[in-house]
Amino acid sequence: MTMNKTTSFLISAASCVILFSGCDRLGNGVVQEIDFPTHTPQLAVTLISRSSTDTLVARAHTSAGILDTTGSRKLKNALFTLSQEDGISFTWGGENDWTNGIGHILTDVNLESGLWTLRCEEDNFETATATQLVPPQIDSAGSYAYAMSTSFDLQEISEYGEAPEIKYYVERRWSLDLSLPDRLIERDFFIMKTRQPNSGEQENEEEEVIWDNSTYLDPEIEDDSRVQYNRLADGFLIEDVSGVNSLSSVRFIVNQYLSGPDLELLLETPAFIELAALSPELASYYQSLDMIANPSGGGLFTEPLLAYSNMSSGYGCFGLYTSCLLELTGE
Known about the structure:
With 331 residues, this protein is α+β, with helices and mostly antiparallel strands. It has helices spanning 2-28, 204-209, 263-268, 280-293, and strands at 43-50, 52-62, 79-84, 89-93, 98-99, 103-110, 115-121, 128-133, 147-160, 167-179, 189-195, 212-219, 227-230, 235-239, 250-260, 271-278, 315-328. The chain has four helices and 17 strands. The chain has a nine-stranded mixed beta sheet, with helices on one face. A four-stranded antiparallel beta sheet has the order 4-3-7-8, with no helix packed on it. Strands 9-10-15-12 form a four-stranded antiparallel beta sheet. The termini are far apart.
């Protein structure tokens, strides 16, 4: 018995020495130097546009490594060329087309249906190119049409202030049941977002007497796997997740809040929703950036998330979309 107790004590003492020795090393920390690979700057190009637009904005920067203290630089001398397969071509860029804080601007553009190629050139970098097929024009009629039914669920009116300066607050709500085009071979992606005032739908004199006009959009079904909010697009990204007809009956709730002194004008003011059809490349770009901004977890040493790029060299996205406006009234 005595020998067993002594042996047990020695083993326990040895275990404590090992334990405290290990804790001491953990407490002091372990320094491991990691060499970051050398980064060679490349073009980072972005051009995202509707096929029909009055202003086309392209941006070119240099890419920068994690240890680069100067960061990315804007390339004001970059030259852009958009060419279509049938020979139509637009070229712009350089200092003359540079607008500080925005990018290189080309006005009065209409990109016809078909395949377009973007080319970005800068003297100090390898030329970057990308191609995009213009998505079908989304609309309420035609070969790529949506179907929508709406119900006007709620209208509440309240007064505040004192006569003769009575003001009104109006709250309205609609339920939307939307069926979107869903092709057999191609994957279809859409963005639904609200369009706030000052977008050309209201006259200036109306804006002066509407003090608040706010519209909010939310899915009716919170866990609808087809619908995901995307911060970069500032709207809900909708995609087909299974076979044909998977985009039927996508439901949303629209809430509009209005205030001002003219009740009749408030009740006549519609709510606007923009519906856009995205190219698959543009959808992938939005999804990847949203995952980077909102990671869903993972180990400390997992591989980093990379932004999607469809440029031939370097980084960035050339993406196209079509869109239409949905108008909701209180009738």
